[in-house]
């Protein structure tokens, strides 16, 4: 397999890719990471330009795309929530056709999956999903690279996700775990389980790869012999403040603590796609403390700052894996 297998393709969700294609992108990211660490330039896409549409802001996604593009010799134009008329004064289809006439690739981070799918439908250049409500494929590649760095493999790894499993992170972990033959456990209150149709689809994929999907309300069952403990914020960007009380009541039993971590394997790691509310050093953290008396949310500070935590290695890997996606789809030649 070479980059020719990816040239001109969109990167919208990992359901669109085979296990072998996903592994190839992780391998390419690992190669880019090694080259960067050794100071080997990879700027072979000079003269190319990409547009970055951010209807939802992000530190990691924006920095990852901009640094990855710069390393490849690509120029970037950042369009923040106020800098794009997508879906407001200009239709998604028209936006896609305008940007595709000026840029070599388009990244979209925002709301419904249908938006990035429509962008791709009307764009003649590759479109990359930086995050939608339903899927977060670039994060998943970073997670796979991190897990492989920690354990030397993907197949057979048990990943236990705790918290709200209905949206992009829970959905995407289930998809990518099934694709790569991992054992994925989603642990939450039943009302926070993902869409049954997607669960069934992932179970069918896992049956072919040797992986498995399990949904449970029992944290101890989920944690038993886990290699990877994973969580995410309880309230997603754009949701109203009033949902906090409900989420805290429902999800507090699924906070990742040192006691839960002890139920996993001795060399288990903790992962989080960030940002994390693990102390009172954020504005939201202070508000939650004042209103609900909590010092920590989805993970305790003890776990977040422990030697088992690989969250910053995981965050760095966003850049390397995004570089792989950009390079492969734009026809980078080694």
Description of the molecule:
α6 links the parallel β5 (158-162) and β6. The chain contains 13 helices and nine strands. α1 (19-37) packs across α13 (311-329). It has a five-stranded parallel beta sheet with strand order 7-6-5-8-9. Strands 2-1-3-4 form a four-stranded parallel beta sheet, sandwiched between helices. The two termini are 13 Å apart. The chain is an alpha/beta fold and 334 residues long.
Task: Describe, in short, the structure shown.
This protein is of the alpha/beta class and 334 residues long. The chain has helices at 19-37, 59-71, 92-102, 113-122, 137-151, 168-179, 196-209, 219-223, 243-251, 258-261, 283-292, 301-304, 311-329, and strands at residues 49-54, 75-79, 105-109, 127-131, 158-162, 183-187, 212-216, 228-231, 269-272. The protein is globular, with a radius of gyration of 19 Å.
């Amino acid at each position: 397999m070479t980059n020719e297998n990816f040239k001109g393709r969109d990167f919208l969700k990992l359901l669109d890719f085979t296990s072998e294609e996903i592994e190839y992108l992780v391998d390419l990211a690992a190669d880019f990471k090694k080259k960067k660490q050794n100071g080997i330039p990879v700027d072979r896409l000079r003269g190319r330009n990409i547009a970055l549409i951010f209807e939802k802001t992000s530190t990691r996604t924006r920095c990852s795309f901009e640094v990855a593009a710069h390393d490849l010799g690509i120029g970037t134009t950042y369009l923040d929530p106020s800098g794009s008329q997508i879906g407001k004064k200009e239709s998604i289809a028209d936006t896609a056709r305008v940007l595709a006439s000026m840029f070599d690739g388009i990244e979209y981070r925002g709301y419904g999956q249908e938006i990035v799918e429509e962008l791709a439908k009307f764009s003649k250049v590759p479109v990359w999903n930086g995050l939608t409500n339903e899927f977060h494929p670039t994060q998943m590649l970073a997670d796979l690279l991190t897990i492989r760095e920690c354990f030397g493999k993907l197949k057979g790894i048990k990943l236990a996700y705790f918290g709200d499993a209905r949206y992009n992170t829970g959905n995407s972990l289930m998809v990518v775990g099934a694709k790569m033959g991992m054992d994925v456990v989603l642990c939450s209150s039943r009302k926070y389980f993902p869409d049954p149709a997607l669960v069934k689809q992932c179970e069918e994929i896992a049956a072919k790869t040797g992986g498995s999907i399990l949904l449970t309300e029992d944290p101890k069952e989920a944690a038993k012999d886990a290699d990877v403990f994973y969580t995410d914020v309880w309230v997603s960007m754009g949701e109203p403040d009033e949902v906090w009380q409900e989420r805290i009541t429902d999800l507090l039993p699924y906070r990742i603590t040192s006691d839960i971590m002890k139920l996993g394997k001795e060399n288990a790691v903790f992962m989080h796609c960030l940002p994390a509310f693990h102390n009172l050093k954020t504005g939201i953290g202070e508000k939650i403390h004042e209103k609900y008396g909590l010092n920590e949310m989805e993970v305790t500070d003890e776990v977040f700052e422990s030697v088992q935590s690989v969250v910053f290695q995981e965050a760095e890997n966003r850049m390397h894996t995004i570089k792989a996606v950009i390079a492969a789809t734009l026809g980078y030649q080694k």
